[in-house]
Specification:
Elements lengths: L3 H4 L11 H4 L3 H4 L4 H28 L5 E2 L8 E9 L16 H7 L4 E7 L5 H7 L7 E4 L5 H24 L3 H13 L4 H19 L1 E7 L4 H13 L4 E6 L22 E4 L2 H8 L8 E4 L20 E6 L4 H17 L3 E5 L7 H7 L10 E3 L4 H7 L2 E4 L4 H7 L3 E5 L18 E3 L2 H13 L3 H17 L5 H13 L1
Parallel strand pairs: 2-3, 2-5, 3-4, 5-6, 6-7, 7-8, 9-10, 9-12, 10-11, 12-13, 13-14
Antiparallel strand pairs: 1-4
Length: 486
């Protein structure tokens, strides 16, 4: 039977076929020389130990309550949302990055709302306090450390579970299963599992203080999603746990389809579109789970066919995921394209979880960028409006881009599984291996007067509608009415 600590180990969740996620499992399948393996294990041990030392330091010298807030938390809340704060600029946003204006709309309908943020910033709490703005509902920001004794208590749980996992490994005759137990017993100390158990304590206390009727979180297959539900139900077994599958399912999505103990599973799943609802509804594990389409802010914003002038300046939007390595892959490739085609402008756009400052510290190509590369500071909608083509890999922002008429270029890396969200799109999309291919297609599009754009626009719209329906707040509103009146 899975314990809370085992459920809290992020390594045990195979999210999807993305190379960044799969990288975590390579040591299981590729055995190294004995000496090299000892060396790697030593390095990992030192890193994990230093992570623990840093956490102890934080517990002594930094703000270590469960959360930070400027607002008064109501003792009875209809809806508790749990989201993420990814960069400091989001502190001044009225709407949430993931739930957009849903909390604000619920307030207008006289619901009481509370928004809790999993803190991905390296800021001190005093800096957070100076940056946030007031909204129509209270927000709390979970701290990155608890008191020394609470951190020590969590650490003891990790050691206890690690010994159990090692014992299970010794009792198992299957070599692959033994490796899984052994690896989990070591990776449990890398800091991620401790963060999950810290979050468990924070959410428990927030539920205790606010007594919400429902808790709403994202649903992509991460450990924290299961931990949130368990934490809430440990205080109130009757709380309704709602999960929002806001990205749609990927080709080999796995972890969202895991059925654990009831305490870790959602009561209701809202999806971004009909495609995801149909896929999840087919699974027996969701036979007793309510699944409804809520839609997404990534739904169509402009389905009109683009009017393209053959003599206009032309732009290719480059949209990587919020992963540093993915940014560098696409930016290096488009850098070469920009040198080959100096009359095409390439707009480099970032996910909020990544900054150009961080990328510049890692990559020398930022030192001397050609004039036809633009570092975007605009909204996604503005960048899309300006562009003709879009270069991408794994981001679901590609759906909004093609719904507005941009022709998609998927960059393929030899030897990897595809991470293309548009894998069902057989026409119009171009799969690239070399910069010269992108330049050739762009030249043909311009010379043909963008004929391919209008011919395939309806196909793109249909695919987008399946994945991302327009956001319909009434779906959530109607569900809350039933829950609160039950």
């Amino acid at each position: 039977m899975s314990t809370l600590v085992v459920v809290a180990i992020p390594w045990l969740y195979l999210i999807r076929e993305h190379p960044v996620f799969l990288e975590r499992y390579k040591d299981i399948f590729h055995k190294k020389a004995f000496i090299y393996e000892i060396y790697e294990n030593l390095i990992k041990y030192i890193k994990n130990y230093l992570t623990w030392v840093r956490q102890i330091y934080r517990s002594f010298f930094l703000h270590n309550s469960y959360w930070y807030t400027d607002d008064v938390i109501q003792p009875e809340v209809d809806c508790l949302f749990i989201s993420h704060i990814l960069n400091s600029s989001q502190l001044s946003n009225i709407d949430d990055f993931y739930f957009v204006n849903i909390p604000s709309e619920l307030i207008k309908s006289n619901y009481s709302v509370l928004l809790g943020y999993i803190n991905n910033l390296d800021f001190k709490d005093t800096n957070i306090q100076k940056s946030i703005i007031s909204t129509s509902y209270p927000k709390v920001y979970f701290t990155n450390t608890l008191t020394f004794f609470k951190e020590l208590s969590i650490r003891k749980l990790l050691h206890k579970e690690s010994r159990k996992l090692k014992s299970n490994s010794n009792l198992n005759s299957d070599n692959f299963t033994k490796d899984i137990y052994n690896y989990a017993s070591n990776v449990i100390f890398n800091g991620e599992t401790q963060a999950m158990l810290r979050l468990y304590e924070q959410v428990r206390n927030l539920v205790l203080v606010s007594n919400p009727k429902t808790i709403v979180s994202l649903y992509e297959g991460h450990a924290y999603e299961r931990i949130l539900m368990a934490a809430a139900r440990s205080i109130n077994p009757n709380i309704v746990c709602i999960s929002y599958q806001h990205t749609g399912t990927f080709r080999l999505s796995n972890a969202i389809k895991l059925q654990l103990k009831p305490i870790y599973n959602p009561d209701i799943i809202f999806t971004s579109g009909i495609e995801c609802k149909e896929e999840l509804s087919k699974l027996k594990i969701f036979a007793k789970t309510e699944i409804e389409v809520l839609g997404s802010n990534r739904g169509l914003i402009n389905s009109n066919k683009r009017k393209l002038n053959k003599n206009s300046p032309f732009f290719c939007l480059v949209i990587p995921e919020g992963i540093t390595t993915e940014c560098l892959i696409l930016f290096r490739f488009s850098y070469e394209c920009a040198l080959l085609h100096p009359h095409i402008y390439f707009i480099w756009r970032l996910h909020p979880g990544v900054s150009f400052r961080d990328l510049k510290s890692r990559e020398n190509l930022f030192i001397n960028l050609p004039r036809n590369i633009i570092l975007s500071e605009q909204s996604l909608e503005k960048d899309i409006e300006l562009s003709n083509w879009v270069l991408y890999r794994g981001t679901t922002a590609i759906f909004k881009a093609i719904s507005c008429g941009l022709r998609p270029f998927y960059l393929r890396i030899n030897g990897e599984l595809t991470i293309d969200p548009l894998f069902n799109l057989k026409e119009w999309r171009i799969i690239l291996d070399r910069p010269q291919e992108l330049v050739e297609v762009i030249n043909k599009d311009i010379q043909s007067g963008f004929k391919m754009f209008s011919n395939n626009h309806n196909l793109a719209i249909e695919i987008c509608i399946q994945r991302f329906s327009p956001l319909d707040i009434n779906v959530l509103n109607n569900k809350l009415i039933k829950i609160l009146n039950a």
